[in-house]
Specification:
The radius of gyration is 19 Å and the shape is elongated. Helix 1 packs parallel to helix 3, helix 4 crosses helix 6 and helix 4 runs parallel beside helix 7. About 40% of the residues lie in helices and about 10% in strands. By secondary structure, the chain is mainly alpha-helical. The two termini are about 15 Å apart.
């Protein structure tokens, strides 16, 4: 898993100069970090998909240490920015897709929440009184705190809190890189030699 220091996965985006990233600690805001990781590690590891690494490990057929890269959530940024770098290094990866959302116009709830937080005009006190937030600890001071509180809320409270933030916001749409891949785009990854799994 290519990820942040806390073990969370990175998105791989290449935002324009005016784009704000909604979850900056979880985003490699340019393809550079992925290229650096691959350039640094691939000379010392055999790279394969997650399932192929498991098979080689079980068979005891790995002559060198194994490296598997995985990308979660199926956002378009994986296809647009990560896949070309993987091709450049000849590295297969595993892409875990949330099958209910692939091919739809819906964003995953945590992206909806983070973009709503970024665009909202509500004060900190108003945000703290949102459904599902007021009952779950301290008032969130950033999008990460908001997401932590929403994870403890019921699905209904979560939806209501996100809708409240969205209605108080700028109405700015999510950037194109945040959308989910289509099934044809997922097939293109498979055709390119990558593994597709369910997330």
């Amino acid at each position: 898993l290519v990820g942040a220091a806390d073990g969370s996965a990175w998105a791989v985006v290449d935002p324009g100069p005016d784009d704000e990233v909604h979850l900056d600690r979880l985003v490699a805001s340019a393809p550079g970090p992925i290229r650096w990781i691959l350039a640094t590690l691939t000379p010392h590891f055999d790279t394969a998909s997650v399932s192929e690494c498991v098979r080689r490990r079980q068979r005891g057929s790995a002559e060198r240490p194994l490296l598997a890269l995985s990308f979660d959530d199926g956002q378009w940024d994986n296809l647009a920015y990560a896949a070309p770098i993987l091709a450049e290094f000849g590295v297969p990866a595993t892409f875990y897709l949330p099958t209910d959302f692939i091919g739809s116009d819906d964003l995953l709830w945590h992206d909806c929440a983070a973009f709503a937080w970024r665009n909202s005009s509500l004060s900190t006190q108003q945000r703290a009184s949102l459904p599902g937030i007021r009952d779950h600890g301290a008032a969130p001071s950033d999008a990460y705190g908001f997401l932590r509180a929403l994870k403890a809320a019921s699905p209904e409270q979560r939806s209501e809190a996100i809708a409240s933030l969205q209605s108080s916001g700028t109405g700015e749409p999510a950037p194109p890189w945040a959308r989910l891949m289509s099934w044809n785009e997922a097939r293109a990854l498979r055709t390119a030699g990558h593994e597709i799994g369910s997330h």
